[in-house]
Structures are given as C-alpha cells and as structure tokens.
Fold these 3 entries.
Entry 1:
Amino acid sequence: MSWVHEGDGLVGWDVAATTTVRGPERFARAQRWWARFCEAAHIDDEVMAPGTGPVAFASFSFDADDESVITVPGTIVGRRDGKAWITTITPHRPDPLPTPHGGRLHEPHPDGEHYRRLVAHAVDEIAAGVFDKVVLARGVRLTGEVDVHRTLHRLADKYSDCWTFSVHGLIGATPELLVRRTGEQVMSRVLAGTVPRMPDDHESGQLATAMVASDKAREEHAYAVTSVAQALGTHCTDLDVPDEPSVLRLANVQHLATDVHAMLVDETSVVAIAAALHPTAAVCGTPTERAMQYILSREELDRGRYAGPVGWFDANGDGEFGIALRCGQIADDHTSIELLAGCGIVAGSDPDSEFEESESKLAAMRWALDDD
C-alpha cells in the first residue's frame, strides 16, 4: 500500500485490519468502521502530525453498487516536510473484522470504433439537452504477471508531480487531488481539459496556449470547478477559487488546472468531504444524476474503483484522497491488469480527438508496465 507525492507520503505493508463496504452509504460506513477501530486501539503518537498514528488506506468505488476497500497496514513508513517516522499497529479487535471478498495487449473494451460511436451519441444527447457534460471511459486489458514495485517506482520517478498509489490491487499515478484536509485547511485540485505534451517545448507551448483559448476545454473545466466549489460549500467557508485556470504540465499530457482552497466550519473528516465531492463533474458529468445514468446504461464497462476516491486518512480526520485516474486494476488471480481512461464530452467534442486523448491518458500506465 502506498501514497507518494514528490518524495513525501506513506508506504504500508502487512495488514492489521481490512473491510469492504458498498452502497450509497459506503463512505459513512467506512467512517464508522474506522471510528470503532480507533476507539479500540491504544495510540502512542509522539510525532502528532497528519499521517502519524493509525492510518487507513482506502479505495472507494465509482458507482455505489461496486465494492470499496479500506485497509489498515500493520507497519507504515511516512515522510513529510523533512521528517520521517514509522508506525506499527497491533490493535485490540472488539469484534471480528470482515475481509474483502505485464504482458500482451488485448483489444480494448470497448474497442476504438465502439468508443467513437459512444462519444458521437453523447454529443447528440448534449445537443438534445439531456445533459451538459458526460465523462466516458474505455479500458485496455494486459495479460501477464505485474511487477507492482517496479511499476510504482517508474511512475513515481517519471510522474513525481502526481500522487502514486497502490491500494488492494489498484495501482497508478493520479494528477488530480480530490481533497486534502489538514486541520481546518481544505484543498482540492481540479483538472479538466487535456492536450498532449510533446518532446519539443515550443510545440507543447502552442498546444497549451490553444487549450487555454479553447471554448470547449474551458467549458469542460468550468463544469468541474463549479461542482467542486458547490460540494465544498456544504462544509467550508472562505472558498478561494481562482478566476483563471493554470496549465499543469506532466510528462506526457497537459491539463487545465485549478486549485481550490477553503476553511472547514465544522469537524467534518476527510472521508466525509470526499463523499460530498464524489462524483465530480471531472469524472461523471453535469448534471450528475443524468450523466451517471448515461454512463451506467451506455458505457458497457465496469469501472470498479477507477475514478473513485483513493488515498489515506488518520484518526484525527486528516488525510488525502485523489481521484483514481491513470491507473490499473490487477485481477484477483494476478494474471492480468485492466487499464482505464476517460474523457469529458461536451458540445463540440470530436470522437476521433476524444479517442486520441484517451490513448494519451493510457500511455503512462502502458509505459510503466512495459518490460522494455
């Protein structure tokens, strides 16, 4: 288990406790389970910083009907702002804790033509006023045994600006921080609008300039920022939302980015804030219910925990959750991994361009898993 960003973060191994939850109340159920766990544990925390003491790693599903997983490592190594620590967890358990029930490239599911047709249909639905935006995903399955440690090391090395994670078979490096809670301070990074990053800096700069000027990209981004700001407003005050997005340049793609800052008005935990935020317009669409209905009925893909919140939380309610993007889910028998990527569809979206954007987003995991 891991959550690492620019050399700081948490790495855990062994399992002190684990549980699975599902349903619309999965975030609340996870929080209640964690509260019982912490109440039963004797905590000796001399560091007293976010991420010290008891810590749980969690990966929540995109759709409520799928399974979410929460795991407490037996040993955790943490590093933050030049400080490092080791946490060992051997809790007293008041009641039984439930347990959760590389290679050759195969044809994507859905395949390229299916995905293009799906995008075209969604654009027609947008024109008809069914919804304003919908995010459509596609998957690629690779067969063969996955070297998790090597893959995570390559991702952390090349994509140090992202949050590299590994939770119960879900591995990846996400550029999007759904929420960070540190005491009263809350922050969320919104990404929507994407162009490739080229080897030539001048060409990359031209693409970024065109993205900033694109009505389509700015509209897609604005929907995502609005959904995050509205959700944070239920628990926070003093929202700081920049008027203009910046450009986040990663190794292979460039995104429109907005960092939203706020102050908590209550003692809401990071898990509850993540529940209020999910799903954002960046991974679902606008309006949320209509976009979700379209995804579940048309996408023909089981997202599982892709595009759901992934990260960690501690006994004080602090923590970080990213959105599980640029990732893959390793099969239970460890013989394959499914990579997933999605694109935001708005009025004016072009099926060929969206397919190419999805290919760009899949490139990070394809590269990290490549044996060459």
Note: The chain has a mean pLDDT of 90.
Entry 2:
Amino acid sequence: MRLLAPTNWDEDLIAPLSQMGADIQIYGVLPTTMIGSGGAGPDIPKMTRKKAEEYIKLARSAGLTFDYLLNAPCMNNMEWDENTHRELLKHLEWISSAGVDNVTVAIPYLLELIKKQFPHLNVRVSTIAKVNSVARAQMFESLGADSITLDANINRDFKLLKAIKGAVKCELSVLMNNLCLYQCPYEYYHYNTLGHASQSYNPLNGFHMDYCVLHCTIDRLSDTSQIIKARWIRPEDIHVYEEIGIELFKISGRSMPTESILNAAAAYSSRQYQGNLYDILNALDPTIKCASPTPSNIQISQISSPPKVYIDNQALEGFIDFFKKQDCLSGCAHCNYCQKIADKVVRLERREVDEYVAGLKNFLNELTSSRIFHPGKSKIKN
C-alpha cells in the first residue's frame, strides 16, 4: 500500500511514519508562499526555508519521500506580473534544490510550466482541481500530470472511478478522511479563501473568516445524515479501491496534532480501526485564523469547543456495498440510506450540539448582517 500523509513539520512524525510498513510519502508547505496552498498559513507552525530543507532531508534519510504543495486554486492573476513571475521561478528553483520529490498543483498553467522548466519534478494534480470526469482526467494527463488526486465527491461513484482508471495511464489517488459535505456548495469559495490567505502578497496578511466551515458545521451537526454522506473511506474498505486500480491513498489534515496524524496513518496502513471513526477524520472546526493581528475594525465573537461526535466504525461493516450500484448524484434527494446509517452508527449529545449550533448561527448572523464590523448596527451605510 502507498500512503500520502500530512506533515505539520513536527520531527516526531518522521520515525513512526517510516516504521509503519507502508510506502509513505509526506506532504506539506510553508505557512505562506507566493503560490499559496489549499490551507491557510495559520493552520501550521511558523517555518523557514532553512528549517524546511532540514526537515525534508531528515524525512528522506528515513525513507520518506516529500510532496510540496503549490495547490492554491488562484494566484489573483499575479502569475502574469513579470516581477512576480520571476519570483515564482525562483521559488520553484528553491523547491527543486530542497530535495522535493513531488509537487501538487491545482492551476493548469503551473502544471505545464513545471513540466517544461523543471521536468525532473513529478507533478500531482490536487483534489482542488475537481477532476471528476474522464474528460478532465484525460485533459490534465495531456498537460503532463504524473498523478491525479480525484475530486473527493466521486469517492463512492465506482462506475466513474473505473471509467477514469481505464482512460488514463497516470497514477490516481483518493482522499480518504475528508469530512467535507457531499457536493458542498461552499467548496469553491472555501478553497479560494484559504488559497489567498496563504499567499505572501495577501493584503490582509493571512486574515480570513471561516464562513464556509461555519455553514458546513451547522449543516453536519443539524443533519447527521451529512456525516455519512461525506465521502470518507474506512480503513477496512481500501481494498475496494485497490480492486479498481487506485494506487495511492491520501490522508488529509496538515493542521492536526502529531498524535492525530499518526493515529490516522496507523489506522489506514493497518487497514482497520477499532472504535470511533470520527477520531481519524479531518473534521474542520470553525475558527478565526489570522497570520497577523485581527484588523482593528473586526469584532470577534468567541466560539465554544465543538461537541463530541462518535461514529461506530464496526457497525459500518459492509455499508460501502450499497454505493456500488447507487447513483448518488441524481438519486440523493429520493434516498434515505445515509440517514438510516446515521441513526444506527452516529452518537452525540443533542443538547450539547444544539447549544453549539446556536452559537455558530449567532456568529454567522454577525457576518451576514455586517455587525462584525460595527457592533450594534445591522448594516454598513455608504
């Protein structure tokens, strides 16, 4: 088995990951870069290039390869500014000299540029690029992609997965522990806010609001079927994807603590997990993330700690079989399967959840009424 595991730049990750008996590549990125990534800088510790070089060297000496993320979905057109473009090339030269084996991109132009000017680097297309059809997979492969991490929304569309596998020669990977809403309407906006917040030229110096996570958390806790609809993969079901020909399995969670990353990696490498499946899923909780002090005109409400969610992993044995024939994309509105499963395997304290959700809704109202800028006023006057 080949795993792609996140790093939070903690050296204590390296030895345990290298001893798990799986072929593991780790992936990470500096907190802020000119290209940006799919996660904002404040999610990970402050790192310098020198420290990153030392970390990559240490990882490779332990038998781990390294994938560097360049997967922001947008550079605000700065890639076409001559001075910024020169800096972009210098950044890629540094990545190449740092001993990186792989880079992950979401912008097609970057894929072509890297394959032309840095052909020794393997390039993986990010799940952020939303490769969710045969046509998109073939197009990215024609641009030079060595590997594609598929759109997580199609993780349970086995007919489509088989078709994509049969249509391309490049490596395919799936994201395993993502808890994003199925067909999330906030996803495109979310990736753009995170990408821009992680870019070094961002005018707000990394400040952003978790508007998208506020919404998805409210939806997920208010409707437990959304927890089951999310396209995570159980460790016990990896073989289903291997039978299709999927070669690489990605664990998300660069912002997770070291213990949680190792717990998830151990579960997936051993293909089993006893207990609460929620423990190894990457559940984003609403927070206010800033790479610099909060702007003086922003008034922040405090959000309480999230409630405990329990998913009985053993009770999910065989649940994946339903999706081998079900067309979720067109039939989700008329199917109650995920709610039935949720009623069986999801446990939470409803009073605790209701209080937490009420707090999130109050904060969301502060955002949509603009009171976050001017407390006591319902809107900003021109």
Note: Confidence is low (pLDDT under 50) at residues 289-293.
Entry 3:
Amino acid sequence: MKTTRPLSFLGPILRRSALRSPQLIRWQQRFRRLYASRYTIGLLFGLGVVRALVFLIAYPPAHGADSYDYFLSAYQYKDLIIPLVLDGTYPLYPLLIYLTHYVLGSIYVLIGFQLLLSAAQGVLFYVGLRPYSPALGFLVALMVISDAQTGILYNFTSTEPLYIFLLSLAFALLLIQIQRRPQRRFVPGDVLLGATIAALILTRPVGRYLIVPLGVLFLLSTRSWWRSGLVLAGFGLALMVFMLFNRVALNRLQVDTGSDVMIAGPVYRSGLLNADNGPASARLIELTERCGITDPRKGVERTRCLIEQTGSLAEAQRLYTRAYRELIMTHPIDYGRLVLIEANDFLVMSGQHYLDYVILPSDLQCANMDTRTANEVQRYLDRDWLLAEQPGMSADQLTPIIRDIRAAMCPPWHNSSAAREMVDEIAFRYRSLSRPHPYLWYEALLLAILLISWARRLALPILAAGAILANHVAISALILNVQPRYVAVTNPYKGVLVLALVFIVTKIMIFLADEWLVRRSADR
C-alpha cells in the first residue's frame, strides 16, 4: 500500500489557487452566482438601502459633532460676518450645508444625500476588490454594510459621512486604476483619483497627508511616472478649482483647510510642557497663566484667550507650533512613548460611540429651544475662539442664526427602540475589528502573503488598507487624541485586513479538503 507523509501535499496547496475535485468545484460554481454575477452589485446596493433605512429608524437625523461650527461656516456664503469661522473649519461639508439648507431650504436634502452615500459604500468596496478576489470583495462589502458603528454616522450632520464615503471611493479608485493598463496617455480615472484625495483634504484634517502613502503605492504599482503625474494633476486641479471658487464666493484667494489649533492638544495633554523646553514654551506658559485656565479639557476657551493676547489666530497657531516642536526636541523618548501608547489604543479601541441614550440626540436638539439657543449663543460669544476676532458680534445678531440651526431638524422623526437595541448590539459586536493583539494578526497576514503564492494577489488591497489605517493611527497618536468616532472611520480598512487573513486561512482549509478528495478519488 502506498504511504505518504502527513504534510506531503501542503506544499502544492500553498502554490496553486484552483480547485480540482468535482465536488468542491460544483460548490464554488454555485457560490459564484452570488458573489460574481451581474446581479451582485444590485444585491449589495439593495442591502445598502436596507441598512440605511434600518439605521435611520434606530437613530433619526440629528446634529453631530461640531455641527454648529459647520453651519456657521456655511452661513458665510450667505453673509460674510464671521471670517474666522472659515479658518477653523474645512470647507467642503459647509458648502454642502449651504447648498441644501440655505439654498434649497432643507437640511433633509443633505441627510438624503448622505443616506444614498451610505447605501453605495458596500458597492464601492466590492468593485474595488473584485479584480483581486470577488469572493473577498463580497465578504468585505457585507462587513461594511453591516457595520453599525459607521452606518449610524450617515444620519448626522457632521463631516464623518462625507469623509468616510470619499475615503471608500479613493480606496476603490486606487485599486481599480492600479489594475488597468490603458492604451492612451490620458487616463481620466487617474485624474479622478487625485481629485478624490484632494476632496479628502477639503473635508477633514486627517486626510491632508493621504496623498503621500496612496501616491507612493500608486507609483510603485504602476511603475509609471506619467500616470502618477496625472494623479498629482487631478489633486492640484481640484484644489485650484476650490481656491478660485473661494475667490468668487468669499473674496478669499486661498484653499481653506482648517486651522492647526489641534496641535495645542498634545502640548498640554502630554504633561511635558515646561519653560525649559524653549522660549516659545515659556511664552505659552506665561500667556496660559494669565488666562487662568488650568483645566486641560478647556482647549477652546484657552485658545480664545491666547488669540486675544497674541492679537490673531495666526499668531496663536505659530506659538502652539513652536512650543510643540520644542517639546518633541526636548523630550523625544517620553513623547515617543506616549505616541506609541496612543497608537496601540487606536488599534484596540472600538469605534462604538452611540449607546444607551436616555434622550436621543434628535430629541435633545429640539427640547427647551429658547434656553438651549441662548446658552449656545452665550458660549460662542464668551468662550469659543471662532468669534475671538469679532468683538462687535452681539447676541441679537447670532441668536436667529443659532435658532435656525437648532430648528433645522425639528420636530424629531419617529424612532424605534427595538431597531435601536438591535443596531447597538451589532455596533457592540463590531468591536472585534479592533483585535486585542492587532500586531499578531497583521504579522500573520504579512507572513501569509510572503509564503503563499496565490495570496500575493491580495498584496495591493492589503497594502492600501494598511496605508489608510496607518495614516489615521499616526495622526491621532501624534496629537494624543484617540476617540471612538476617529476609530470608526477606519473600520472598513481594519475589516479588510482581518477578513483577508480569515479568507486566506479558510482557503487553505478548502484546498486541504480538495486535495484529500482528489487523492481519495485516485486511490479508488
């Protein structure tokens, strides 16, 4: 009787990628009708619509993080009364608010647009991953569609919905364009990729550096300086168009990409700020003591006080930046240790941030309208740095604007507590995307790609997802500011990495079964 070593067929399994046994081939053909047919995209979009509606019933439309700042920024297109607001916000989302709320007359138009983006997000991941593995693309799309942590965000007026979608679009375009070998010199998809990355910069601060890792990956994959130049051309053209738009609409020949006051966070939170760091640090400590603000959580009030003392936002930013550099140069090891702790927290933290509400945000924003409007107005006038250079702004001017913002989604929509409990449970389960020991998972994935020839086909999607995740981890860690809503943005890319490893391991198991069936058939 012929004998074989127990692991004799493991080598061929790691080298081949096609099934051979008739039994498993039949099963594969049946499943391909689900994940690789002409109906797959329609199915995923339909599931995306269901997802958007379920999440909408669970959490009705409401204002999200920093909504009032973005509404005030949008108001400047109507009446330029607070120019400093434009320096404190990123411009693309306020423009959408202006077009929907102030021009079309209803913020629900924007909510509807965001729900459409939500429904299409899973399709983007499938289309991007399909050239590499339609089965993995289908699994990732289902994971994205079911993700309540990110899906809920589309119901709120905040930059996260637009940013999440644009990031998904950039990921899909990158993977699609890398695969293409165009015959013509001009490739519209490459220009569109660059413009999409530029739109990320115009939406959230964390997107400003993505052009570097994604551009480098595109260059290394296509090995074409010309096509990489087209990506950069699309990137620059989009920024230039927006700059010219600002010149016409606001008489500002610049691209507003927000301020750098967030750099103040690590300066104070690190506990490493002292006068010995350098002259800027000593000056910052002196001005902060004059403000009499010792609570590190009162960054908005502290920044306003510094603007009033230095004379402008630009001067306050320069002081923050110099103090930050002095801190890093004086305490590189201590600060590096803090950054590594924050980076690890980002990788293991769950992105769930809506849970166990006594009063839903949609109900809260419509309750006690007069009192809450007055409190919000007073907060802006007394403490918020966005009005620091507007000493003449009065409550009479600001109150109707704030009241209009608060009332934009009142009365609140109907909601279902049963749907909310289900959505909260799903969101809680998605904590598994943030592995307790993420480095072990990512090292195992890297090892699988190096050792298994057919797994190397997934290298580009894995590198792209890893680059996006690393960008967000690095920026949040460097400013010592890791929050669940920042983590939730990266859920799809954590999912790509986790599912890629699960997919590879599962495929190995299937190939083992396939080899066993083939050998058993040969022995008969």
Note: The chain has a mean pLDDT of 90.
